[in-house]
Each structure stands twice: as structure tokens, then as C-alpha cells.
Design brief:
alpha/beta; binds zinc ion; 5 helices; globular; 6-stranded mixed sheet; about 30% helix; single chain; 2 domains
Length: about 190
């Protein structure tokens, strides 16, 4: 899986959306260039549970010395293994959208919101470390964060929308991943605990 930030989404008369990009992502496994292989349709949901069909590219790690893996190329407004657009998930995590909010009505439902909160709480430390690494490499600028040891993630969240997709893009493009489903169950299953 690779995530891109430079793209446009075009909607056809049939309602199918297509993600078009000139980005040339590198393989997150071996760092070699990726080449277009084929495309597939991915579903995502916007507010009120509205479903969208989005055509995305599937890329193959090519060349003689590449690892040969296939990667779905996602625009960064989609979080891998999540159905809702990242802005909606981020707003719930930040407390901007709540179960009583009329913009969300029944979708996402309260249970889904609780799952996202638990998911964020589980990966909070990973997001903090990623934010610190990126800041150290001067890949983004923050206003002064106060005393040494302050949470870079907290300051990044205060900077405005897009922090979640920004961090997840770097995690995936550097070879990391956030497993699908309940993270605690995943790590128990894989005997990481
Ligand atoms: Zn590769």
C-alpha cells in the first residue's frame, strides 16, 4: 500500500470517481520504482454514510532487482482498511464531530466513533514518534512546542486538519502499516504482547 498527496479526483457521469496522479511512488518494501499494473475500485464513505466508488491504481514493484510486490495506490484522504474518509475520522478523534452532531446523524454511528477513538488511543504513541521523526527531519514546520518533551502530535493536531492523513501517509510509504480490525486482537494473535 502506498499513499499519495498530489492527485485529483474526477467523477464520471456514471458516478465512478477516478484518482489521477502524476506521482511516482517508490516501493515501501524495497525502495525501487513502482509501475502501473492495473486498477481496481475501492469504496469509501463520506458524511451520512454516502458511498463512493473510486478507481485506484495498482502498482507493481518492477525491474530485475525489485521485490515484485503489488501495492494499491490510495489518495491520502483514504485511510487503509477504513471505510470513511480520513477527514471524518480525524474530526471524531479531535472531538469536532460527536454522536450528537447533526452533520453525522447516524453515520458514522456512535459505535464506529468509539472504535476510532480506541484505534487512535492504541496507535497514539506511533503517531507521536512519527511526528517527532518528521519534525526532526524538518519535513514540516510547527510553531514552538514549549518545553522539551512536549507532545509534537498535540501541537500538530492544533495546527489544523490533515494531520492524520499526513502521518499515515509517511507510516505506509516508509514500509509501516496499521493492521486492519481491532489492533489489540491483531497483536495478541501475532504474539507481539
Ligand atoms: Zn519492492
Amino acid at each position: 500500500m502506498v499513499l499519495i498527496s498530489d492527485y485529483i479526483v474526477v467523477r464520471s457521469r456514471s458516478g465512478l470517481e477516478e484518482c489521477i496522479s502524476q506521482e511516482s511512488p517508490l516501493c515501501p518494501v524495497c525502495g525501487k520504482p513502482l509501475k502501473y499494473r492495473d486498477s481496481r475500485v475501492r469504496i469509501y464513505k463520506s458524511y451520512n454514510g454516502r458511498k463512493h466508488l473510486l478507481r485506484i491504481r495498482r502498482l507493481k514493484c518492477g525491474g530485475k532487482d525489485g521485490c515484485g510486490r503489488l501495492h494499491n495506490e490510495l489518495p491520502e484522504f483514504i485511510i487503509p482498511y477504513k471505510h470513511y474518509a480520513s477527514e471524518i475520522i480525524e474530526n471524531v478523534i479531535d472531538g469536532v464531530s460527536t454522536p450528537g452532531d447533526p452533520t453525522t446523524e447516524d453515520y458514522p454511528c456512535e459505535k464506529t466513533m468509539q472504535r476510532w477513538a480506541a484505534w487512535f488511543s492504541f496507535y497514539c504513541f506511533l503517531f507521536e514518534i512519527t511526528a517527532r521523526c518528521l519534525r526532526k527531519q524538518k519535513l514540516f514546520h510547527l510553531r514552538p512546542i514549549g518545553k522539551e518533551g512536549s507532545s509534537v502530535l498535540s501541537v500538530l493536531r492544533l495546527e489544523g486538519t490533515g494531520w492524520l492523513s499526513f502521518l499515515i501517509r509517511y507510516i505506509y510509504n516508509c514500509g509501516g502499516r496499521l493492521p486492519a480490525g481491532n489492533p489489540e486482537a491483531f497483536f495478541r494473535r501475532e504474539n507481539f504482547s
